[in-house]
Amino acid sequence: MFIDDTKIRLKAGDGGSGAVAFHREKYVASGGPDGGDG
Question: From first to last of its 38 residues, what are the pLDDT tens digits of the chain?
Answer without folding.
Answer: 899 999 999 988 877 777 888 888 888 887 777 777 66
